[in-house]
Amino acid sequence: MTVGIEMGLSMGPGEEPARLDLEELLATRLLVQGNSGSGKSHLLRRLLEQSAGAVQQVIIDPEGDFVTLAEAYGHVVVDGAHGEGDLQAIAARVRAHRVSVVLTLESLDMEAQMRAAAAFLGGLFEAERSHWHPVLVVVDEAQIFAPAAAGDVSDEARKASLGAMTNLMCRGRKRGLAGIIATQRLAKLAKNVAAEATNFLMGRTFLDIDMARAADLLGLDRRGAERFRDLSRGEFVALGPALSRRPLALRIGPVSTSARSGSPKLVPLPAPADADLLALILTRSAEDGTASWVPAPRTPPTPRASPADLLRELSAYRPEPAEAPVPLSAEDLRAGLDEVLRGIAADPDAGRQPVAVIYQDFLVRCRMRGLDGESLPLAAFRRRLGVARAGIDGQGAPADSDGRWQEAQKAAASLPDEVQGLFLLLARAALAGEPCPGDEALARAIGSRSPGRARRLLAYVETRGTIVCRMDFRGNRVIALPSLGCETGPGDPKAVLPGSAEPEMPGLFAAE
């Protein structure tokens, strides 16, 4: 369904009606710019009145100008003084029940306005997918909620408000939110918010930087930029797929409702009385009552700490002495370190990190468990990590009655770190007379998921004379370890590993 909104009359020959395609507007967003008094609020009111019966509307109103829509068009007025959590819940219910609302923020200071608007827009944005119906979200004085530079408000409030406005203009379309933002100056508005608008209505402006930016958005030359100074109140230049494919000057039509705060009008001054004017204003009258006026106490602003103050506080800080931990027995410490190392060996992502990085993770895990991880130095940790990786699919270290497993650990220590686990896995299989591990098992032993990398490292270990590989007539692989005087049984190189259950590996730290 195509709904055309008559915004007013074009200022060209014939003064034809200037229409806005509401369906296109929902998909492309709108930016209105003009100095104070140029008629931005009048334009927004015309748009809201003309589309009131066709689409749900949400107005973020910092000055309380649009609350008069409630009587004429049934909008619900929501006071921004509610808590942030309440505002988010209200916004979610607004989307669920498709109610048109005016969020009035006139009773709040600027920082509170930014927090309230961020919470309400966040509630609209985070609504359930089933409630993503089309909504016109009109934000008047958008430079308050998406400032181009930091002001007197806290960084937390500014970032929250700017993030909510960015979500509205950048990601709101898929959620049915069509942002319509109005600002006095484009230079005051954050660029990433203004850049997402595709439709523009540019009103009167006088500063060169604002005229140049407005002309650039509309594709006008320097002479066209001077035209913005000559626009009268309520006159705008329109461009965009929902308005006109070429810059079109138009005059906004009349509205049926009015703002509570109209333009200032000249009123005749009262005639001077015969009494002394000074005494008239300084003498208390009976209407004033007996209580004297006392100004409300102002809360002094919280002073911001300078970097020097923060550094001074940090250097003077002395933590309270913690209770000395109960020392663990050597057996309990060994069991705890064994469990921590087993968890690291079972982590598939640990294989992509250098040993030094894994060792730091090991120390952190030990501190979390109250263990002295530094009792295991880096060199011993590297060796134990290779043992752990070698035993990922087994039942721990083999029986070492003849001392050959200890000889295998010494031989592994002479190899590079990345192949120690692979060599120990082969040594354990050979000492136990088990079939040769497949490529996947070898890859896991070196902390990798690539069988190809495992085959390359296997060939590298063979070039050092530490192992000898051969293939039997059935295509199975047999690996001999000359230094240990044993070899594995025939094993399929393409064997698939069984389920990845955490192994039981007693005695990882039994021999140092």
UniProtKB/TrEMBL annotation:
Residues 490-512 are annotated as: Disordered. SUPFAM superfamilies: P-loop containing nucleoside triphosphate hydrolases (SSF52540). This is Helicase HerA domain-containing protein. The keyword Hydrolase applies. Gene3D superfamilies: P-loop containing nucleotide triphosphate hydrolases (3.40.50.300). InterPro entries: ATPase_Atu1862_pred (IPR014588), HerA-like (IPR008571), HerA_central (IPR002789), P-loop_NTPase (IPR027417). It comes from Methylobacterium marchantiae. It comes from the Bacteria. One of its GO terms (molecular function) is helicase activity. Keywords: ATP-binding, Helicase, Hydrolase, Nucleotide-binding. Residues 15-80 form the Helicase HerA central domain.
